[in-house]
Task: structure prediction
Amino acid sequence: MGPIQAPSLSLAALAPLLLVFGAAAIGVLVEAFAPRAVRHPVQVALALVGTVGAFLATLLLAVDGTEEVTAAGALAVDGAGLFLQATIAGLGALSVLLFAERGLDPARSSFVAAAAVPAGSPRDRELLTSERVQTEVYPLAVFAVGGMMLFVTANDLLVMFIALEVLSLPLYLISGLARRRRLLSQEAAVKYFLLGAFASAFFLYGLALVYGATGTIRLSGIRESVTTEGTGTLLVLGLGLLVVGLLFKASVAPFHTWTPDVYQGAPTPVTAFMAACTKVAAFGAILRLLYVAFGTADWTWRPIVYGIAIVSMLVGAVLGLTQTDVKRMLAYSSIAHAGFLLTGVIGLGGGTGSGLAATLFYLLAYGLTTLGAFAVVTLVRDGDGEATHLSQWAGLATRSPLTAGIMAFLLLALAGIPLTSGFTGKFAVFRAAIEVGAWPLAVIALVASAVAAFFYLRLIVLMYFSDPAVDGATVGVPGLPTTIVLAVTVAATLVLGVVPGSVLDLADRAATLVG
Result:
């Protein structure tokens, strides 16, 4: 037996991951040893150092043109991976700021004071006004960010599965930590966990089938096997199960059933975090799996993705019309946007091209816009906490013209109105689909966009052209963290709609996948 050789590691290429996981690990130690009084500011600072540091590290790697396979071939650091990692880290930093929002009154925090207290008990009601916050949410969120960044660069199905679990388990926990509506929050967490466990099982079973068919779990090895030996029934079944697991995480219909309930029940900052970051991570993994491993056998998955894109767009657009809760409405908006993103997936050829660049841009634009929209939701409140029923938003423009104006602008961006990032992103992915001959899909996407625009405009009309209810919602004064989030997301949504050229060029240069 020969000597065991250590795997080749590029510490520079792994720097973003090391920063995020290092900050999360230190956060766990802070929970164990730091006095309760200092935990909150320390945890916020650690989370921001980890996410912002990872963002800057990815930018440096991108400037250097880093493109390599490292960690014994388990990770592929390439243009698309770095773009997605930077997007996740940036959105993660903004999400941490939303987590940290406590306003002038610490009791306004979205997170429970003590998670172990039974919901509805006298102690639970007493803690509603406590200045304590369950600060474990910060290292959990940073672990999730690390899992997402690992997810989009995984060059190995087993590493991809581990990353899927690392990003999912913290989300299951923090979804159940809402300060108010505890039972609804805990129900959402249980639903998310149970359905997520099934999705993980699908992914793992698909991994086993692919390994049985090809003898490898390395994406490049699978591509070589597909190229030389073709695709058999076992391999196609394995691919189908892998895709099901990833589409669940991306909240694509018909694997979307968890999305409305979890978006509604989770603390709104957590909902914003999931809607923005998890979507980016899931689609990053989908792109890498389909085009690195199965790019030479696209006939096996293109018809399926084509059909699922149509289903997701129609389900999100039509069912979104029936919603009376703002968070559920944005959940169905997320499902519709997942279908629009799949049009970009269809438009990618051979692992490079306009479809990949368009999808990368769309993920960035959608993540920023939806994060800003949920940040506005955290400000609209009544006596029981956040006011999310549509009737409570009636006449909001008379109570707070600025808040209503910001929300209206972000909703118009989600609808794809010109001079917003949403229009640029949709134009890019629709054009990519048309370039490869999928013009019927682009036509259906245009119709779905028009249908979905109705429920965005309905909320705008409600805010501006309805009389405010006597006991309607009020608008809280945002603290510095939420102000920063709103300023960044609104400015980015405007800039990416008016002058998107530089970011589109950046996405085009980043449109490379290696394996």
In short: Residues 301-501 form one domain. The chain has a mean pLDDT of 86.
